[in-house]
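Postdoc handover notes: sequence design on the structure in folder B. Input tokens:
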């Protein structure tokens, strides 16, 4: 008995199967992408400021030993004053074997006491790369931070976990340079010249469109 093979039917079914696989792959990719963005945009609550309900989230990846990060900081503060409608996230990233590792731990430990922004601003506004313990202790006294607890929390598992989350966030974003900004799904790398307040506002406006 001869079996008739309908090649058109076989190819058509194969085509439909291929389309289905492509659709599944695309949907999986979208879900994964949204999941990655969600992770980047949702750090420890103390790293978030501004309008917490805003649809515009600005994430800054920075380093506490980076002079460029220190130089751009006043402009970032201006942006937050001018654009109170944005949700701003600071993601400090330490570099191995430099002072930023210790400073990142200090900022995160201050965050456990609800004083992240006070310590974050103090570190970035200090022009020195090497910031001694005396300055950290003075800052702690100024902002009513328990310095003894801060010193203890620096090496805590909670602080290590928070830093790891920041490192994973920048790895997932694909950002390779610091400082960088992520607004929505777009990455903004800083050039050789410091961005002006107008530049940062345009960055936000572009994301809002």
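Designed sequence:
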């Amino acid at each position: 008995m001869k079996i008739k093979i309908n090649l058109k039917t076989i190819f058509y079914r194969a085509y439909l199967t291929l389309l289905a696989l492509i659709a599944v792959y695309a949907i999986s990719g979208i879900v994964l992408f949204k999941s990655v963005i969600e992770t980047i945009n949702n750090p420890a609550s103390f790293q978030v400021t501004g309008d917490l309900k805003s649809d515009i989230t600005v994430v800054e990846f920075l380093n506490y030993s980076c002079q460029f990060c220190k130089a751009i900081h006043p402009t970032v503060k201006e942006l937050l004053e001018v654009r109170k409608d944005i949700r701003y996230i600071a993601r400090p990233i330490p570099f191995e074997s430099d002072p930023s590792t210790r400073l990142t731990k200090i900022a995160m430990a201050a965050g456990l006491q609800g004083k992240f922004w006070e310590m974050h601003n103090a570190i970035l506004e200090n022009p020195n790369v090497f910031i001694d313990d005396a300055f950290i202790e003075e800052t702690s006294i100024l902002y009513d931070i328990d310095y003894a607890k801060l010193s203890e929390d620096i090496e805590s598992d909670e602080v290590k976990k928070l830093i790891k989350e920041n490192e994973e966030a920048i790895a997932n974003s694909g950002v390779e340079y610091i400082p960088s900004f992520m607004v929505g799904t777009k990455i903004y790398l800083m050039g050789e010249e410091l961005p002006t307040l107008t530049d940062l506002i345009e960055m936000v406006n572009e994301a809002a469109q």
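Context for whoever picks this up: The chain has eight helices and five strands. Don't rerun without checking with the PI first.
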